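Work Package 3 (structural annotation) set out to generate three-dimensional models for the target panel prioritized at the project kickoff. During this period the team completed the workflow that converts sequence records into discrete structure tokens, so that structures can be stored uniformly alongside our sequence database. As a representative example, we reproduce one entry of 434 residues exactly as it appears in the project archive.
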Amino acid sequence: MTDATTPRRKGKSPIKKIGGRTLKPSTLMMGHGFDPVLSEGALKPPIFLTSTFAFENAAAGKRFFEHITGKRKGPADGLVYSRFNGPNQEILEDRLAVWDGADDALVFSSGMSAIATLLLALVSQNDVIVHSGPLYAATETLIARILSRFGVSFVDFPAGASRKAIDKVLASAQKMAKKKGGKVALVYLESPANPTNALVDVEAVRAARDAAFTGEEKPAIAIDNTFLGPLWQQPIKQGAELVVYSLTKYAGGHSDLVAGGVCGEQALIDAIRPMRNTIGTICDPNTAWMLLRSLETLELRMTRAGENAAKVCAFLKTHPKVVGLGYLGMIDDPAQQDIYNRHCSGAGSTFSVFIKGGEKESFRFLDALKIAKLAVSLGGTETLASHPAAMTHLSVPEERKKALGITNNLVRISIGIEDPDDLIADFKQALDQV
């Protein structure tokens, strides 16, 4: 009796160029990383709901686990187990890497699981982390309160710091690491900062890092690009080596999933992958499939939201009950404008509005909104509004909130894709209640 087993087919090589023209991300989102031949001709990737994958033979099983355990460099040569990889996740990672021009990408069960896995992979006991401030409150908590229990320290600098100030902070971190017997393990940035929209000069950070460290001593530079990425900012171009996302936000874009991503240089991705394999923080296949759907319209959604934000902020800027705007399309500080001009291609759709008064007036404004939803998060198709000092950043000590400009009259707005004139009418009637 003959063996009628059909050997596994290989997918076609990805097409990124046609006639010398490099295809744009918006085009690649429609098919990059997926060959219908491998899925019975399905135009879109099916959802692969399986916990494990069958090997072709025992030798293939050994080869796959040599990759998983690190005996061979790089990702697994095939599919093994859904804690390690899966078709939906791998297609998503291929497409996510396209936007930032990264070597590779990894996807996670949430933005915080992406950040936690990155930190656990790159930081060891007695190491020092240098980070910009403010960071997302949960990120600050993870670094300052949780990793500190394991001997990890940090030194931070304000988001808008100059090259001279960054040099000083890196020198301080080096002294701290030497005293502790560790190393400066990571430079972690968030730009624009949450919720102030303050920008970090990534080029200055890269120059300062390269001047202060040599060879293998150089700590990686990672940046949370959630507020502007991946459409309006690609920090790898400015010298970052890892880019972090809450894919819940603009990449997902419909407020119906939670996921995270990291993309960047291959060597660093290869260092993070084994940690994800071990602690099981990979994104599930259904969420990965939903993100593949969302990436197809990412450019359209973000463009419309950005246009809406510009119109809404033009109205808010002149309103007598608004005393300030943290909107990147209306920057007052020349140094911040210089960073914006060098780093960003758009102002985004998430900003801070400072209400005349304090918490009482801000709450009155929020409670009066009719179209905008009172909810945390950002980057969805709907407009959202929240009060960071009393909500997302409530756990941040008062003195640090004051130093970072997270005041009681700061309201964070994430503009959606509704009609802009309707949104302006909503903000106008809500401000009338203040």
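The longest helix spans residues 298-317.
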